[in-house]
Amino acid sequence: MAKQRKIQNGRIGKDRKTDYSKWRLLDEDGRQTWHYLRTDEEEKEWPQSTADKYHLGMPTNLPDLAPAKTPLQSIDNGLEFFSKLQLPPGNWGCEYGGPMFLLPGLVITWYVTETPIPEAHSIEIINYLFARQEAEGGWGLHIEGESTAFGTSMNYTTLRILGVSAEDPRMIKARGVLHSLGGAVCGPHWTKFWLSVLGVTKWEVANPTPPELWLLPDWVPIAPWRWWIHMRQVFLPMSFIWSKKWTYPETTLIKELRKELFTEDYEKIDFAYHRNSISPRDNYHPKTWVLNSLNWLLVNIYNPYLRTKSIADSAEAWTWQLIKWEDQNTDFANLGPVNGPMNLLACYIQEGPSAYSVHRHRERMEDFLWVKDEGMLMNGTNGVQNWDTAFLIQAVMEAGLAESPKWKPMLLKALEYLESQQTLENRVEQEKCYRHPTKGAWGFSNKDQGYAVSDCTAEAVKSVILLQAIPGYPKLIPDDRIKLAIDIILTYQNSSGGCASYEPTRGSEYMEYLNAAEVFGRIMVEYDYPECTTACVTALKIFQAHYPDYRTADIEAFLKGCVDYIRKAQRPDGSWYGSWGICFTYAGMFALESLRLIGETYENSERARRGCQFFIDRQMEDGGWGESYRSCETGVYTPHEKSQVVQTAWVVIGLIEAGYPDVAPIKKALKMIMERQQKNGEWLQEAIEGVFNKSCMISYPNYKFIFPMKALGMFSQKYGDIDLL
Ligand code: LAN
Predict the structure, then answer these.
(1) What's residue 3's pLDDT?
(2) Cβ atoms within 10 Å of 442's Cβ, excluding its own
(3) Residue pLDDT, tens place only, 676-688
(4) Which atom of ligand 1 is nearest to the CA of 335?
(5) Which InterPro entries match (predicted)?
(6) Strands 31-36 and 23-28
(7) What are phi and psi of 33, to 5 degrees?
């Protein structure tokens, strides 16, 4: 496409680009923010690091290394590269993009709260969104998905807010796609919510999200405290804003958007009629008759006749209190990138533009932003710090390299990082705001955010126990803190025996009848996950080996439950469905590890054999495995057109865990992984690796280093460091 085009409110000009040599990533104790330097002095004082350059897609000039022939040589080369990306506090960072509905929530919030948008941000967000525009012309739910009304209406609106002209050919094309999908009134509930905040649609278009639900007694089966934490924490500010029916005052841009986003005249649109309109491409989880009936009652009976001002006031007051606790408990970092901007808006509405809450929220928005070669995006969390760091430690340890003087300083820093990120307190008003205890736990990203996650705690404590047991490593985390982490892990078991993510499951699966998001599946309550369950199993097993006398009976009972669940979760074809990585290759790796830990391997277990056979039957010509994200959507293993380094590593790990007897397919797979390693030791980005809520994909770019190294390390420990190339 021609570079010369109309942008910026009709001015003719080139797409602007910031000077990439001026961007710096600041990591303050795990809080990652990007900064655009203004002066030469600043640049001199704060030179660009290799990690900055790498993440920005600039040449790192890291040297070519001696070609690897054996697994350990390959790991050594991998670490030569990856160790250069370690950030000063000891963690690794990365983009955590994928979802295409995050930036719009932020940019709309900036707009309606009149938050100044730094020019460099604006330029690079525009670049990112155009870089991710699909050939068809729109945007999808995530970077690899086809255009949807959700993605297209929201990202189109974002670009317009940032000053892109409606006459830009790319915008004309995007409008064409949006109109062919029925226009913005056919977006899902979140489109309708955000566009009503903007005043582009009228509030009648949005199905009700009454804050009164927060007044329900706790025993009520549908009370929000029972919902999956991400749903309830998004519902919280959403219900507050909905109740206020808050709308930004009309501007010229809003009037223009009203002309651009719909297929008919704004004045003629019956917004109430479109409450349930949705384009088929967006309708991953159609609303059930139960929810539709409930919405009907709310709209036609409850809201007009029963919802008194005093009910609304007390619901808003309690909801506001819960919002304040969420802010206080995270220092305004908030659970994630959806409720973060919404809480900012709620504070703006309630406390006004100059309130401290608004100021601090604005600062915290930076924690979600990431700059890469394509521009600026919004991460799915405020980073992947704890998670990737714990996994990297384990990968190096699997290869038996923890004692190597070359890698010890790197591991020591990583350990220091994990030490600094363990949460040592519970949250204020923990019970009242329905938080699970956090004392002793680790979260996914950092301590600021501080939400305990079962497997994040498990992977972190596992790495700490293993590393601290190696001679020469200091005991940074003393026994009592390790035991606190174990105590938390032991709170995560469900009656099924399995473990969920942030909390034990608090409500029934029937709650999915009230899933109103339309674009996601399995979101309403916590579920058991083979991945989370296995992480808990491995952590407890390792803990037992080092601390045989602590809560022995509890741990035994817990482990038994976990394994019963893992067995039950296996499908007849031998596979396990993955919820956080794509998909069967991810979950299979974990499940086979769980089985091995209780002594079930290929040799003695029909289950382990079926698990292995499922993988072996799907090995590709070149020795690798490749699984498309469609597996997550459909629940049916769907091959990717190309084998993937990350998924191949997952399968190899699973096969080695299970003791698969034939080394030939494993060797072939590792050969493929080694052949894809670059001369400087890195692996290149391939397809997206992660998923949530069945339909939305999310990137884990560090996996392409961590898992190949882990797989190679496990192989070398088992079969020796033999030539594979
Ligand atoms: C994550 C990221 C990490 C992930 C693992 C630790 C890998 C997993 O094993 C447990 C669940 C967890 C913590 C998880 C839950 C859902 C998250 C937070 C995400 C996939 C990252 C983004 C996603 C979040 C829900 C995105 C915002 C979207 C909404 C629908 C609210």
Answers:
(1) 36
(2) 32
(3) 999 999 999 999 9
(4) 18
(5) SQ_cyclase_C (IPR032696), SQ_cyclase_N (IPR032697), Squalene_cyclase (IPR018333), Terpene_synthase_CS (IPR002365), Terpenoid_cyclase/PrenylTrfase (IPR008930)
(6) antiparallel
(7) -140, 145
Cβ 364 under 6 angstroms from ligand 1: no
- Looking at the fold, whether 154 and 239 belong to one and the same domain comes out as yes
For a ligand 1 pocket test, name from 335, 446, 453 the mutation site with the most ligand atoms within 8 angstroms of its C-beta. Answer: 453
DSSP run (H or E) holding 696? strand 696-698
In a 3-state reduction of DSSP, which class is residue 378? strand
Nearest CA to ligand 1 atom 21: 380
CA 217 to chain CA mean position, Å:
31
Chain segment 17-35, per-residue pLDDT in tens:
999 999 999 999 999 999 9
Q: Find the mean pLDDT for residues 547-560.
A: 97
> Same domain, yes or no, for 194 and 337?
yes
Q: Which residue's alpha carbon is at the smallest distance from atom 8 of ligand 1?
A: 580
Distance 502 CA to ligand 1 centre (A): 10
Q: Which two tokens stand for residue 569?
A: 């979760």
Q: Is there a single domain that holds both residue 540 and residue 640?
A: yes
Does one domain contain both 241 and 364? yes
In DSSP terms, 375 is beta-bridged to 372
- Partners of residue 677 on adjacent β-strands: none
Q: Of all protein residues, whose CA lies closest to atom 12 belonging to ligand 1?
A: 501
* Last-in-domain residue among 352, 378, 404: 378
Mean pLDDT computed over 208-228: 97
Tokens for 51, please give them. 């990690």
Decide: 514 in ligand 1 pocket, CB within 6 A. Answer: no
- Ligand 1: residue whose CA is nearest its atom 26: 380
Strand ranges for 9-106 from DSSP E: 12-14, 23-28, 31-36
Number of domains in the chain: 2
- Residue 286 inside a domain? The answer is yes
Q: What's at 185, amino acid-wise?
A: V
Q: What is the distance in A from the centroid of ligand 1 to the CA of 339?
A: 13
Question: Could you tell me if 350 and 474 lie in one domain?
Answer: no
Q: Is the pLDDT of residue 260 over 90?
A: yes
What's the pLDDT band for 709 if we cut at 50, 70, 90? Answer: very high
**Is the separation of the CB atoms in 244 and 277 below 8 Å?**
no
* Phi, psi angle pair for 656, to nearest 5°: -70, -40
> pLDDT for 270-304, tens place per residue?
999 999 999 999 999 999 999 999 999 999 999 99
Ligand 1, atom 20: closest residue by C-alpha: 692
Q: What is the ipTM of this complex?
A: 0.94
State if residue 97 touches ligand 1 by the CB under 6 angstroms criterion: no
- Express each pLDDT in 54-68 by its tens digit: 999 999 999 999 999
Give nearest CA residue, ligand 1 atom 28: 338
Q: In whole angstroms, what separates CA 74 from the centre of its chain?
A: 29
Residue 566 placed within a domain: yes
User: Which is the closest atom of ligand 1 to the Cα of 531?
Assistant: 9
**Whether 478 and 330 share a structural domain:** no
Residues catalogued as catalytic: 455
698 lines ligand 1 (CB under 6 A): yes
Q: In one letter, which amino acid is 257?
A: L
Cα 424 to middle of ligand 1, angstroms: 22
Return d(Cα 571, Cα 560) in angstroms, integer: 20
Residue 19 within any structural domain of the chain: no
Does the beta carbon of 532 lie inside 6 Å of ligand 1?
A: yes
Domain at 128, CATH number: 1.50.10.20
Q: Which atom of ligand 1 is nearest to the CA of 691?
A: 20
- Could you tell me the pTM of the whole model? 0.96
Average pLDDT value for residue range 661-690: 98
The phi and psi torsions of 168 (rounded to 5 degrees) equal -55, 130
10: pLDDT confidence band, cut at 50, 70 and 90?
Answer: very low
> What residue numbers bound the domain in which 496 lies?
453-504+521-719
CB 30 within 8 A of CB 385: yes
Model confidence pLDDT, tens digit, residues 439-496: 999 999 999 999 999 999 999 999 999 999 999 999 999 999 999 999 999 999 999 9
Tell which residue, 442, 328, 446, has the closest CA to residue 379: 446
For range 155-175, the mean pLDDT: 98
Asked if residue 17 is part of any domain, the answer here is no
444 lines ligand 1 (CB under 6 A): yes
Last residue of one domain, picked from the residues 350, 378, 406: 378
